[in-house]
Design brief:
The chain has helices spanning 17-27, 41-61, 85-113, 121-129, 148-151, 189-213, 217-238, 260-268, 294-297, 300-306, 317-332, 335-348, 358-374, 391-394, 407-435, 441-461, 467-487, 499-519, 521-543, 552-592; strands at 5-13, 31-32, 133-140, 154-159, 163-170, 241-243, 248-256, 273-279, 377-378, 381-382, 401-402, 405-406. It is an alpha+beta fold.
Length: 610
Amino acid sequence: MIDKMTKYSFVLLSGEAEGFLRKLEDLGVVDITRAEKPVDDKSAKLLKESEDCKKAISSLETLEFESDPDHTKLKPSWDYEVNDPLELFEKVSTLEKQLKSDINAYYKEIEDTRAWGSFDSEVLDDLESQGLKIRFYKVPKKSYDPSWSMEYALQEIADDGHHVWFVTVSDDPSYSFPMADIPRPQNDCRAAECLLADSEGELIACKGLLYTLQDYIPQLKDRQDKTQASLQRYLAKAGAGKAAEDHITTFEGFAPAGEEERLCKAFDSMDDVIYLKEEAVKEDNPPIKLKGNWFTRMFTVLTDMYGRPDYDEFDPTPYLSVFFLLFFAMCMGDAGYGLALIVIGLILRRSKGMKDIAPLVSTLGVGTFVIGIVMHTFFGYDISQVSWIPGWLKKCMVTGNIAGFDANMVLSVLIGILHLSLAFILKAIYATKKRGFLNSLGTWGWTLLIVGGVIVGGITLTGSLSSAVTKWIIIALGVISAIGIFLLSDIHRNPLKNIAPGLWETYNTATGLLGDVLSYLRLYALGLAGGMLGKAFNDIAAMTVGDGSIGFGWIAFALIFLVGHALNLAMCCLGAFVHPLRLNFLEFFKNSGYEGKGRTYRPITNKQIQ
């Protein structure tokens, strides 16, 4: 649901602007109209500092001392004096990345030079200064010809059975060898190992400093809050209006209507501010604040992925929350995977970086468990055939065929029809609110035809209506809908001129609606694919058990079962996230007329803005 907004206009002396904005920060609910992006070098610098603090906090919070492979060697300096934790973090993290890159390079160099053993580069340089050219070779064992040593001054260095390393020495300017040489090693193995040891020691010291900086996370958070608040004040001042040769500054802001009494009392106490208030309307482009219960708030992030509604649109989050949960669960289609998601959600609650999405993961797990029971699948096993499952629970499972088609496939299509019908109803209702009933007759015509046809068809299938009554109801629906679609879609022009646009809309709707309905078959297809893959892993695991005797077979069974279902769970989650979003963002939003072009409510505050 969209929270109603009150529009405020403020007039004050330009010299009082900074203090006024600080007072608004303390109130914490007024969204001052301001620039969305940095407007100059100063604002860009503030934004960068805020983002750098955020990255540093996120990186430091993910560090876990006990799980570090080098934790026994680490010596965090808890008493280390840090003047600027952000600057130190950036220096240390940059050095850490460079050291890791160097260490990988040294490991490769050691691997490349180990066969050459230890050698003195100065001796080689001295020989070359005397006109002796030393060339290095590494060739496959099968390509190496021992007779080369009879023709060239050749010394074999190493032979691991796969490759042969050797060198040749020659002072002949026209020297020629049947194999291409390789670059001379820059260091011998010992030198590379020393460099590796030094870099690993420096890396451990860097890690120690990073763990030391974890004590400064609260300081970094406070700095981020202050920097973000400074940025918002600066952008608000940049977007303010000027008058009377810049002596007067004007601000425009919005706040929830429920805060009006508190805000007016605060503004009345400000002697240096003149303010006006009025109810916000769409033309003011007020920010959008969505309000809902604990359930719908979890799905607001999905709405924001598409875009918040305009001020005169409907909030799609309540519908998105119910249908996304249902579609996700149908795509997963396995009660066992639902339990796994519940456990994952509980684990994520302990994670600092992921705890915000933990409730959503657990909720999706509960939905998947319930729908998995309905679809009678538990870790790939068909539980409808299990004897100990209670009879009342089996009655809740969708099995068998309907009209020759799999019952779950028919269910997916029926849910799609319901979803699209709801979209048409919402489109008609909100079109009436925006333009009035008479200006929405074309929309109501389509809604009556489609939704009415679905309802009549559903009742007829139950046998409650005779074929004769159904025929006349369909005819009546068709006639009334045709009048709205072809004659009254625009009441401000000649009805005959509405026929051509009506025909074009009929073509688009008829062809598009069929494709939209068939799109919901993906709910059945993904659930079926996941179930079949899970069953395949079960069958492969069962083959390792053999006669069932205790032994290695059961260990192999457990490994195949766990790894197989872990992979299947990951793939199912990916599909179950993307495709339900598509059905809501494309099929539902398109047919409901939802645009999602509103701007997010971001009050100016001295607290961290989420």
